[in-house]
Design the sequence.
């Protein structure tokens, strides 16, 4: 087992060294940029539909989440992600894909301890640390603005 | 023009993450978590707001934008409700995205079957 791990680590290192960083970067930049342009267009569209600026931003994210979940369900998201790397991971699409793919995979383990729990495999850390950082910031902001 | 900024800024966030993945082999979950926390910090110190002003979807679509939402929501809630806003503002601002992801993820698990290769 130990030897296997070492062999794998060496194999992984060899593969990783070959990975062309510049090319990966260009792909991530291009696909990520396109998704962000789509996000921007959706903000404009939702705002034209009469939503407030905050709400059109939210609905733009929700629309991208819907698209990412559907692509995940049909098995297309992984194909795009294989090409784009961080280009599909960093936009909200990556978050949606992480939630949907773990949920779909966990279906066989049941709806409660499978789907319900595993849904949070990636969403959990993101929400826990995002919300915690927000609360710490809020406390600092409160002390700085209200007490001085 | 605004789409050019959205493309460049959004693309830059993704390219930076790609470098981190290739050079440090951080797992995607760690990248996402780091990006959200970075967004909270950048939003908190007042740098991310102007970036959203310039790049629109280029700054709000990456997960840092999610962190910025949390910071902004917390700030607004503290401004209007005082100390209790520390506990309310973050999730309130992020509620739409979180709820949509959880609901749609849950529904997807009912509709789609895992395609294990």
Sequence:
């Amino acid at each position: 087992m130990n030897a296997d791990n070492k062999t794998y680590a060496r194999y992984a290192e060899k593969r990783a060294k070959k990975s062309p960083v510049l090319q990966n970067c260009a792909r991530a930049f291009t696909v990520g940029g396109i998704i962000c342009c789509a996000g921007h267009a959706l903000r404009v569209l939702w705002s034209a539909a009469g939503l407030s600026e905050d709400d059109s931003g939210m609905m733009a994210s929700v629309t991208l989440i819907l698209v990412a979940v559907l692509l995940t369900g049909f098995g297309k998201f992984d194909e795009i992600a294989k090409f784009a790397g961080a280009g599909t991971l960093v936009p909200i699409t990556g978050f949606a894909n992480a939630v949907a793919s773990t949920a779909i995979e966990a279906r066989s383990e049941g709806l409660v301890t499978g789907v319900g729990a595993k849904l949070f495999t990636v969403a959990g850390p993101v929400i826990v640390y995002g919300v915690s950082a927000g609360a710490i910031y809020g406390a600092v902001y409160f002390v700085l603005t209200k007490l001085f | 023009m605004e789409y050019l900024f959205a493309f460049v800024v959004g693309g830059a966030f993704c390219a930076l993450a790609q470098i981190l993945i290739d050079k440090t082999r951080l797992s995607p979950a760690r990248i996402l978590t780091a990006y959200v926390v970075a967004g909270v910090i950048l939003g908190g110190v007042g740098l991310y707001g102007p970036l959203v002003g310039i790049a629109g979807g280029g700054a709000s679509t990456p997960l840092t934008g999610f962190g910025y939402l949390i910071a902004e929501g917390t700030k607004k809630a503290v401004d209007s409700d005082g100390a209790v806003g520390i506990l309310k503002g973050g999730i309130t601002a992020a509620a739409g995205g979180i709820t949509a992801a959880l609901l749609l993820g849950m529904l997807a698990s009912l509709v789609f079957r895992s395609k294990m290769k």
Notes: Residues 21-48 of chain A form the longest helix (28 residues).
